[in-house]
Design brief:
Helices cover 46% and strands 15% of the residues. With 253 residues, the protein is an alpha/beta fold. Strand 5, helix 5 and strand 6 form a beta-alpha-beta unit. It starts with 10 loop residues before the first strand and ends in a 7-residue tail after the last strand.
């Protein structure tokens, strides 16, 4: 088997596709040959992404959605199937983070975080998974976080949602693996997306976090996207129920 990620002829649905890690994932999947269906809340981001994907000679379509539950999940999966004829790859990347001390977290912040990061991911997996199971094959990759493995101050809801997504990955892998659908996750450290650069650009804030990363640096979106593409490919055909931590060693110490 050649050590080359080849997704030619595959069709992928990526949530949170407009910016940052999601955008990098869409482009990495497209470079590997997969057609792409992007989902985001911002149409201008999806349109500009489409221009980049089209430049690679890849089919592209999109849907605008605020993913919070089963109705929107079913709608976007059905739209993706209509546009691309089928979905073989689902990447649950959409997420939000409300940072606050635990004693100050509001019910709205908690519900928004859990609905977006966990509930929507499950129902997208369910909607896409039903179709994959009917065909007997498919790849689902959930984007979690190192914050689902180790505790971070002021991240109570976020940590809870990402830890739960990691366990959901295992449950789906156990149930669906025997029927041809693998389910895995990627858990990044701080990634220097435009938002990440704004949040962590202050050296006073960045240095304590960097001191905990043995490699001494934050990640780039493509470093997450390349792992997602690998897990979506035939090279990862025996990997199921795993979380690949992309954190420079943060969780190793």
């Amino acid at each position: 088997m050649p050590l080359e990620i080849d997704l030619s002829g595959r069709r992928a649905l990526v949530t949170g596709a407009g910016k940052g890690i999601g955008r990098a994932i869409c482009l990495e999947l497209a470079r590997a040959g997969a057609d792409v269906f992007g989902v985001s809340r911002t149409e201008s981001d999806l349109q500009s992404l489409g221009e980049e994907v089209a430049a690679l000679g890849i089919r592209y379509a999109y849907a605008i959605a605020e993913l919070r539950g089963p109705l929107e999940a079913e709608r976007v999966v059905e739209a993706a199937v209509t546009a691309l004829s089928a979905i073989e790859i689902l990447v649950n990347n959409a997420g939000v983070a409300w940072n606050a001390p635990a004693e100050d977290v509001t019910e709205e912040q908690w519900d928004t975080t859990l609905d977006t990061n966990l509930k929507a991911a499950f129902f997208c997996a369910q909607a896409a998974g039903r179709r994959m199971l009917a065909r007997g094959s498919g790849r689902i990759v959930n984007v979690t976080s190192q914050a689902g493995i180790v505790a971070l101050h002021d991240h109570a809801a976020y940590c809870a949602s990402k830890a739960a997504l990691g366990m959901l990955t295992k449950v789906l892998a156990a149930e669906w693996g025997p029927r041809g659908v693998t389910v895995n996750a990627v858990a990044p450290t701080v990634i220097l997306t435009p938002l990440g650069e704004r949040v962590w650009g202050d050296p006073a804030k960045a240095q304590p976090m960097l001191a905990k990363i043995p490699l001494g640096r934050f990640g780039q979106p493509v470093e997450v996207a390349s792992v997602v593409a690998f897990l979506a490919s035939d090279l990862a055909s025996l990997i199921n129920g795993e979380t690949v931590v992309v954190d420079g060693g943060y969780t190793a110490i």
